[in-house]
Give the backbone structure.
Amino acid sequence: MSQTWNITMLKSVHLVGENESEDLYGGFEEEYNPAYDTEGLYEDEGFQQALKTSYGKRAPGTSAGRPPGTGFQRMGTAAGRGRPMTGVAADTSQARPMTAVRAAGYSSMGGRAPNQTFDPLNQSKGPAPPLEGKDEDSPEEKVALLEKQVMELIEESCFAAERNDLQMALEKAKEAGRKERNLCRQRDQSQMADQMNLDITYSVLFSLALSYHRLQLWHEANNTYNVIVKNKMFSNAGRLRVNIGNIFFEQGKYSNAVKFYRMALDQIPNTHKDVRIRIMKNIGLVFVRMGQYNDAVTAFEHIMSDKPDVESGFNLLLCSYAIGDKENMKKAFQKLLQVRVDFEDEEKYSGSSDDLKSQLILEAIRDDPLRKWEKEQKAKAERCIMMAAKLIAPVIEPTFDQGFDWCVDIVKGSPYQELSNELEITRSIAYLKMKDFTKATETLKKFEKKDSKMQSQAAVNLAFMYFLEGENAQSDKHADIAITADRYNPAALVNKGNAIMMSGDFNKAREFYIEAMNIEASCTEAIYNLGLCYKRMGKNDDALECFHKLHVMLPSNSEVLCQLGVIYEAMGNVTLALEWYQQFLNLVPTDPTVLMRLGNLYEEEGDKSQAFQYMYESYRYYPSNIDVIAWLGSYYIDAQFIEKAITYFERAVQVQPQEVKWHLMLATCYRKAGNYGRAMQTYKEIHQKFPENADCLKFLVRLFNDQGLVNEGKEYANKLNKLEKNLVQKEQRALSAQRKGSGRSRVGSGQPEKREYASRDSDLTITSPLSSDRTPLSSDRQDSNRSAPRNRPIDASYVDPMGEAPTRPKTAGGHGRPPVDDDFGDDDIGDDLLPD
């Protein structure tokens, strides 16, 4: 039917000629469907009958309430009366065409009802109806919800690990594992096992294994990794054997680590070159730990031939050094110099454009993380090259100079030729470590005609060398040269301040230290020396400020802690001094000087037991400190442990054998302990070694008389008399010489002054354990030149400062004589042999 109709329509096509009017519908007037005849509707009986019976049952037409059109006044035609009834049942919402024939499928009403207004945007329809809600109880929705929860837990575990909250990361990973198992059961129950998401399972297991690994739960991590590796459904899971190898490496099981690294290497294709290189690095490091340096050399050589880098080149050189292969060391050094890490493009960072936007971009990228990383990599490469040169220079050639010359020549022909000057500076420092100051000076003086940077660096080293040698003038001169070459070199300013401070000009030195701090706020040398400068100036508060600032920067520096303790001790703040000294001992528990200072401070606080503990520790670490020895001897004498005191005074005699006071103290301890024979022998040895010591003769005279040995006593009494006469004569000659030389005379009382057992070299102070005052054992250095008047009778009496000695049994030779009083009450010597 449609085909026939189409053919009929084609027959009705009429082409418009040039002289004809353009009537588009002219060709359709001849033949048309009677159902579209609207002019004969009034003559159509069927239509009129239908109109009468259904008038109130249908929607009014668009022409309701209007006069009928002209078409209704026309009489029907035969064709109109014979029109089929199906035309009456047409859809009333479809507007009838106003022409006899209308193109098929189009309507002038636009598909709207007859009484509907024109609304092309459909604004009268209102909002769209709400979307139909999903059924949350459906299996698909339950599975999707569980997958979302699992992924959220994995992300939370990763974030916790990033915050270094490893325990929380493990808990989240375990919870994700439990959720994932629930997800698998839900799929099985919903008969959706074929839709299993392997990526989620892999992520859960991998996150759990990493959490175990971070917490060093080696066994659990290893088991979890094996679950992943042995599951053939996971693609590329074999490379996780690297993680298993890392676990064995951290456990020290190097053989197992090598095994798993090689298994992982076999499963990595050659297209993944970076991954293979990283695994080879791990294998080389394991061989280094195992001491198999030849195998390590093979691994690192493979890396350097395939994809060289600085770390592998440096490790290759170290392994060659370990096996003593000089030629391989040279080759490794040359390979290391061939690695280029010159990331910086100066043109990219130079501000040649006048555009403000370009300038802002340059300012942003000059110090961005990428630029910082580039600088770090370049500094790392230079540091490795410098360390390698210092390591191999003494061994690759017969002499140190030849080895260093070879390294310098190789560096000059490499992309790192600017490091050749640094190597020369390093050579001078090596000479300093070898105590060869002449060669070090010669090497540094070669830089006097170099560029300003190298000249300043060399001058700084020269200034410090001369400072160590005590040549302040030369140190000051080279510090000036360094400042002239580079005014903003903080090291040069610090050396200048050091030279000036040694000359005594603390104010000017302080200015240089402050200037160095202004240039580089973190210059620890300047801050430390400024604190010392304030300390010498007596400005303890300013010194404390410097050292507290330095303590914040260097919290574990023992020198800073010690200086804080010294300053607080000088200020009289014993509590804070003890606190800082204790912090110092936490870092350096074997420092004898600080231990002695703590002992003195606790003694001032009245804590004798703590003082003894620290003094004893100081003596244990440094048994030659005479101050500590004297303190311990005094402590045991006060505690009436004479035998222990003898041990320390014997040590004092060994430390200072030319000091007579320690010999006298030792002899006195023997006598106090009741060992008169040893005491007598010690006094005789003292007299032989120090024949002009009058105190020793007095002891001998009194002891011989005490034992009834009168002849020996008279012999030593005569020696004492002669000695005192000689001493008086020497004193008189000295006085007369002073009168003639200076015209001044000394007025004396004619009485001998009290003599103390003094040291001719230094004044020693022993702290008495009974009080916080320190009793001087020697304060008069002219006691050997003093004597009694010529006519004064010999006084052989003695007052024992340690108390009454035990009564000694009388011998047969003493019968018939009156008992000798051992009071020594009228002898005025040796009152301060021991502390009060």
Remarks:
- Strands lie at 765-767, 774-776.
